[in-house]
Design brief:
Length: 325
């Protein structure tokens, strides 16, 4: 990269960081400011990503099992679909370290040279603004295209990443698609972003079904918009697990699950809830009328039935149904 381009990028970063309003308008600007003010990074630093030792990489892979195992097939299919675009697929842990890579063997040396390889540290604190690091911090899918990267040395990359949550709804990993080719059009990154997000949600759903293999898996009412919005129910129809999407959509928390949350209460829609409320209100009104009649009749069921205009047998049935004595 020429000195003129490098200086231009450095000046742009400094200008955006100096703009107090910029971080509120852009995730990239917010990340650039974190890089400067929180991590003390220099956009001109030419340092390549640090690489874990084999022992450290092996330990990191063990920590992400078995989520990484269920992700293998999804990564293979995604890599097969985009391999001709000069892209690689990376599965990184919550610390921003790629643990697995899929892509064309002919591009492997290029990816290695750019640090797009297992064991590299791609957290925002280490490599500045990049898709893996920023997506983990922001906890949402992000595309960092070319000069949106913080470090000048990374401005030749185009990357899209989406966070992955485990079966307990905790941030566990990130799925990334990166390209080193300058011929990758910016418009194409929108299609890649959709593919990455769909693949990440598929991995979440597969991992959730694996973790609750003995349970009944139900789709939340919003599942038509998010295939990873799932809950796990035991044989007593109590909720024992929920994906992050279901937790956000249905208000599921660990404490609610621990308190024996009934699936029926969780999945009943507005119409069912309103009907249940109306039923409860009617029963309360009926219960109050019977109590008043019994009070006027000094507890005599026959007299109370006469006051209510029903038979003695009918009143006995209502007493049993409403839990009155």
């Amino acid at each position: 990269m020429s000195g003129e381009i490098a200086n231009s990028h450095m000046n742009r970063v400094r200008s955006v960081v100096a703009d107090e309003a910029a971080p509120a308008r852009s995730a990239v600007a917010a990340s650039w400011r974190r890089c400067v003010e929180l991590h003390g990074l220099d956009p001109e630093a030419a340092r390549a990503p640090d690489i874990l030792t084999e022992t450290q990489l092996r330990a990191a892979r063990e920590r992400l099992e078995p989520l990484a195992r269920v992700a293998q097939g999804v990564m293979e299919r995604l890599a097969a679909a985009i391999g001709d675009l000069g892209c690689c697929v990376l599965l990184a842990d919550a610390q921003g370290v790629p643990l697995e890579r899929r892509g064309s063997a002919s591009d492997a040396s290029v990816f290695d040279t750019r640090g797009l390889r297992p064991g590299a540290l791609w957290s925002e604190a280490h490599q500045g603004t990049n898709a893996i690091g920023a997506a983990l911090v922001e906890e949402r899918a992000l595309t960092i295209h070319r000069d949106q990267h913080f470090h000048t040395r990374n401005t030749g990359l185009s990357c899209t990443a989406a966070p992955i949550y485990d079966h307990l709804g905790r941030l566990a990993a990130a799925l990334d698609v990166s390209s080193c080719r300058e011929t990758l059009a910016e418009g194409l990154t929108n299609l890649l972003s959709v593919a990455v997000v769909d693949a990440a949600r598929t991995i979440e759903a597969l991992n959730f079904r694996r973790a609750f293999a003995e349970a009944r898996i139900l789709l939340s009412p919003q599942a038509d918009r998010n295939a990873a919005s799932l809950i796990a129910v035991d044989r007593h129809d109590l909720v024992i697990g929920a994906t992050r999407a279901a937790r956000l959509e249905l208000g599921v928390t660990d404490s609610r699950i621990a308190a024996q949350l009934a699936a029926a209460d969780l999945l009943s829609g507005p119409a069912e809830a309103e009907a249940e409320q109306q039923k409860t209100a009617l029963e309360d009104a009926e219960r109050g009328a019977i109590r008043r009649a019994l009070a006027h009749a000094n507890g005599n069921v026959t007299a109370a039935a006469r006051l209510l205009g029903v038979s003695r047998a009918t009143l006995h049935r209502k007493l049993g149904r409403l839990g009155l004595s």
